[in-house]
Amino acid sequence: MANKEFFEHETNCSFCGRKATQVTQLVTGTSASICDQCIHSANEILRNSRYSQFQKGDFNLPKPSEIKAFLDQFVIGQDRAKITMSVAVYNHYKRISFEGFDDDVEIEKSNILFIGPTGVGKTLLAQTLARLLQVPFSISDATTLTEAGYVGEDVENILVRLYQASNYDIPATERGIVYVDEVDKIARKSGSPSITRDVSGEGVQQALLKILEGTVSAIPPKGGRKHPEAPMIHINTKNVLFICGGAFDGLAEIIRRRIGEKTMGFSAQLSNVTALPDGEILQYVEPEDLIQYGLIPELIGRLPALVGLRELTETEMLSILVEPKNSLIKQYKKLFELEGIELKFTEKALREIVKMAKQRKTGARGLRGILENVMTDVMFNVPSLDNVKECLITEEVILGNAEPVLKFGKSRQSA
Questions:
Q1: How confident is the model at residue 55 (pLDDT cuts 50, 70, 90)?
Q2: Distance of CA 332 to CAs 372, 379, 400, Å?
Q3: In this structure, are strands 177-181 and 241-246 parallel, antiparallel, or unpaired?
Q4: CB-side neighbour CA atoms (13 Å) of 381
Q5: Is the pLDDT of residue 15 over 50?
Q6: How would you classify the pairing of strands 241-246 and 342-345?
Q7: Which of 48-52, 150-154, 401-405 is least confident?
Q8: What is the mean pLDDT of the chain?
Q9: Measured at the alpha carbon of residue 141, what is the angle toward residues 183 and 125, in degrees to the nearest 5?
Q10: pLDDT band for position 33 (cuts 50, 70, 90)
Q11: Taking the CB of residue 348, how many other CB atoms lie within 10 A of it?
Q12: What's the pTM?
């Protein structure tokens, strides 16, 4: 009898009863079996329950200091930006938590605008925040957006991505976070209104207004253009937090001109501000600067939390290489550890990587590019060698003048 039961659970799914011949794959355990279709269904249930905290009202909101402490584990530097973001996010979700209370005071949401050069952590801050709060998160590129009816993506496609990221859960979507990158690219061509149609600039800004403020948008479930006969999903964006980011090339000069006009030579303190490099002076941005850059006043009014991110120092970039939980050096060390090899970098090698990245002027992104170039050949050759215990990357390896130093047991030789 026992043998018959064992045979049956090997050939039939214990959950749906399908036979092994009726499914693609049957996973068998000691006393039960499950088919691939039931595994897929179970995964769907788990995904749907991930955001059920919003429906049950038991969302555990961390304090601003706790949010910043979590961000510190993954993002180096930008303390002012992290503090501003932590407070804005805390107030946003606290506002949602008390939404049902009858009160005369209505708290408006505080969408955020990140302003800073490339590679300083704008996208990483938003991604890390979403990971902490366990809310649906999506990234959209403003450069692909156009006015409705023109070639490109409708603004509503921003919400389609968020809807898909929440596993098609509408209540979770309506409390998610959207990061809109390259928002500076939708600035109109000049600070004054245009008499011609600007379908990928001012037109997109106008289309974004209602979504940022809060409206019920009808979106096609699978994205693409709307069709009158196609079914629509209605998403209320009142509680969706929007974080916009952009490099805003040329904004630093606008800030300098404004400060220079106000000082007129009799304020030494402000005169010192105008002498700051571009990446530093962005912290002094004002709404009037953004209007002159080409953003319409209505859009700026819906992004009340302005955060200027400065350029990373060499010390901070060195920390980015080695300190965060998912730092680049730790990732490469883990890859070598899986081969049974200990990967090491000299201090001079790390500093040379930072120096080369600073010359590229692409921020922290330059670090990955340099490491990829250096490590590709090393990772191609080393796994083929026998009995390698240690791989040392020196400054000369980074400069391309030498091979890494390998340790085979007790002897040491070059690769």
A1: very low
A2: 10, 10, 19
A3: parallel
A4: 12
A5: yes
A6: unpaired
A7: 48-52
A8: 82
A9: 75
A10: confident
A11: 12
A12: 0.75
Q: Which residue has the tokens 């809310």?
A: 135
Q: Which residues contact 412 (CB under 8 A, 6 or more apart)?
A: 405, 406
CA distance 368 to 68: 25
**Which residues are registered as beta bridge partners of 331?**
none
> How far apart are alpha carbons 164 and 397 in whole angstroms?
44
Sign of CA dihedral 147, 288, 308, 96: negative
Q: What is the pLDDT of residues 100-138, one digit of tens each?
A: 555 666 777 889 999 988 888 898 898 898 888 888 889
Centroid of chain to Cα 207:
23
Cα 384 to Cα 397: distance, rounded to the nearest angstrom: 19
Give the residue from 290, 355, 339, 281 showing the smallest Cα distance to 311.
281
Encode burial over 334-343: b for 16+ CB neighbours within 10 A, e otherwise.
Answer: eebeeeebeb
Maximum separation of any 2 CA atoms in the chain, in Å: 98
Q: String of b and e for 63-90 (b: at least 16 CB within 10 Å)?
A: ebeebbebbbebbbbbeebbbbbbbbbb
Task: With cut-offs at 50, 70 and 90, classify the pLDDT of residue 154.
Answer: confident
- Strand 216-219 and strand 177-181: the pairing is unpaired
DSSP state of 174: T
What tokens does 264 get?
């007129």
Torsion of the alpha carbons at 192, 195, 196 and 201, rounded to the nearest 10: 30
